[in-house]
Write a structure and sequence with these properties.
The complex is a heterodimer of chains A (423) and B (139). Chain A is built from 15 helices and 14 strands. Chain A has 423 residues and is α/β, with parallel strands linked by helices. In chain B, 49% of the residues are buried.
């Protein structure tokens, strides 16, 4: 692997132990993937330090205490507790305190923290051809597919890249990987952000780790729709990128997305596929304690939608409604008056975390001394296939997937309202 | 007892280790398929469901699922339930590789024979993560 003189210096330890360890890890990774050299990155979405996992916040603290700094704009991924309003979620104070230590480590390293799975809505906006790293697959997919930046699905080494400014050139950093493998012919127009999520989950099962090229949307999908589509594609499959010709830079048309020729077969995306996802995530006896919207973390536009749906309504007694977003977007929505409308209706506007990421998870491994005890839930109504899949796997309670509008209607009436009425 | 046999693959990294094989015939999603605190395989992997991977050389086709895999592998390391080494038919995804590097777990991929069928549960394997060699039996 060809290393720059500065890479070599870091590897030799001439810039301190944290950078030596970081560069050693990146070089080992690069060799595993036969990378020729390293690229300069322009942005890093990095590990939060997760309080629900033993010694995990400490991973970030140890780097911060050893003097490590981020050398590119950096944001932190979603965390395990709302750093400020944790009481609203029923999280133990011990967990919130530990999670707040991660914020301290990020600030010490020069990271913007953010604690969100949608840093782009909070102003972290990499651009076309920018090499970057991301520990969150939803961010990888959005940045590759909507913004035209170049990112793999990384793990902790996103932190090492943020400290060195370097990353081995392999995977989606190479043009060869950024082309279509599967053609998806869209035969219906999804009617909502949640329909895009259901469609993405259905298609992702057939695409695996490939690059899906979508042809036939009746109009240009909105950014929220692209976000929902990507998050769900990355949940049922292992994708890092999808292409909507005319939207995803630089692909003007389907032919450009398949430089080696179009595949013979196409995956058909129609209403039946969308229905399949909603049906797949209709579990249990229909009872629920919690309704959740805001996965991935809501954009300002989505907060506006939720406020309109909740204006003048009242969440039924005994039901919790969580709206999850980033702290930045919550602040914008508060200033616009939307948070007040939602809270007046009885909703809880939570930032930094979400149901699958918070103390609800049974599959995490918190330090026993924190005293975390996941609550027993009868069920969760939600509007995101990604959240549905991971609540099913990690919170292990029944999930009920529906549209955003009908999720909020479920919260108000106390009865589950499915996306499609029974036929 | 048959003489030791050597299988060659691509050694990604790691030292020499020796331990019993656990052969999963299905791709593994470390986030979801494995209980961190016990190392037990809890996902729908019929060939290995209920078995524990701590201290075993995990032989598997490849990885799938969430990019959070690294965190689960590293957590297994923190809880001392992690596999001793990984032998994957196909190069695992970057998150799995990053988790293995952090946990000091040697990884060999692309072996030159069908290890899912030629290696059996309990076979004693000696792994050299740098050389890429897998010695089956009392080598």
């Amino acid at each position: 692997m060809n290393l720059s003189p500065r890479d070599e210096e870091m590897l030799e330890g001439r810039h301190g132990e944290p950078l030596r360890k970081a560069m050693e890890g990146l070089v080992t990774l690069g060799r595993a993937y036969n990378a020729e050299d390293m690229v300069d990155i322009g942005y890093a979405h990095i590990h939060a330090g997760m309080a629900m996992y033993k010694d995990d916040v400490e991973l970030m603290e140890e780097l911060a205490d050893a003097g490590a700094k981020v050398v590119v704009p950096s944001s932190a991924n979603i965390a395990n507790a709302d750093l400020v309003n944790w009481r609203q979620t029923g999280a133990p104070e011990s967990l919130a305190r530990l999670q707040n230590r991660a914020a301290g480590a990020h600030h010490k390293m020069g990271s913007a923290a953010a604690f969100t799975c949608t840093p782009y809505w909070a102003g972290h906006w990499p651009t076309w051809n920018m090499h970057m790293v991301s520990i969150e697959s939803t961010v990888t997919i959005f940045c590759n597919s909507v913004l035209g930046a170049r990112s793999n699905r990384d793990g902790f080494f996103a932190v090492y890249a943020s400290m060195t400014g370097r990353y081995p050139r392999f995977g989606y950093h190479l043009d060869a990987q950024r082309q279509g493998t599967h053609l998806v012919r869209v035969e219906c127009m999804p009617e909502s952000v949640s329909d895009f999520s259901a469609l993405g989950f259905h298609v992702g099962r057939s695409v695996g780790g490939g690059v899906a090229v979508f042809e036939g949307f009746a109009r240009r999908p909105t950014m929220d729709e692209m976000d929902a589509l990507g998050a769900a594609l990355g949940t049922s499959g292992g994708i890092s990128m999808f292409i909507v010709p005319g939207v995803t830079p630089p692909y003007a048309n389907t032919e450009e997305a398949f430089p080696n020729g179009l595949p013979n077969d196409a995956i058909i995306a129609n209403e039946a596929g969308i229905r399949t996802t909603y049906e797949h995530f209709t579990e249990g006896d229909g009872s629920f304690d919690l309704v959740h919207v805001g996965c991935p973390h809501a954009s300002f536009e989505e907060m506006k939608d939720y406020a309109q749906l909740l204006d003048g309504k009242r969440v039924k007694d005994g039901i919790d409604l969580w709206v999850t977003t980033s702290r930045s977007v919550r602040n914008m929505a508060r200033e616009a008056g939307y948070v007040a409308i939602m809270e007046k209706a009885g909703a809880k506007v939570i930032s930094d975390t979400c149901p699958m990421s918070c103390h609800f998870a049974c599959t995490a491994s918190p330090d026993p001394k924190l005293g975390v005890k996941p609550p027993v839930l009868r069920g969760i109504v939600l509007d995101s296939a990604k959240q549905a899949k991971y609540v099913h796997d990690m919170v292990r309670c029944p999930v009920l997937l529906t549209s955003t509008e009908k999720a909020i209607e479920s919260a108000v009436t106390g009865s589950f309202v499915p996306r499609f009425s029974a036929s | 007892m048959s003489p030791p046999r050597i299988i060659h693959g691509r050694g990604l990294f790691g030292d020499k280790v020796r331990g019993p094989a656990l052969v999963a015939k299905e791709p593994v999603s470390f986030l979801g398929d494995v209980d961190i605190t016990t190392g037990e395989i809890i996902g729908e992997l019929p060939s290995v469901k209920g078995k524990r991977m701590g201290g075993m050389v995990l032989v598997f086709p490849g990885s799938m699922g969430s990019a959070g895999a690294w965190r689960f592998i590293y957590q297994q390391f923190i809880h001392n339930t992690h596999p001793l080494a990984l032998i994957a038919k196909e190069l695992p995804d970057p998150s799995v590789v990053q988790g293995a590097i952090m946990a000091g777990i040697p990884v060999i991929c692309e072996p030159n024979e069908d290890v899912l069928n030629s290696i059996e549960n309990g076979d004693i394997l000696t792994i050299d993560g740098k050389a890429g060699t897998i010695t089956v039996g009392n080598g």
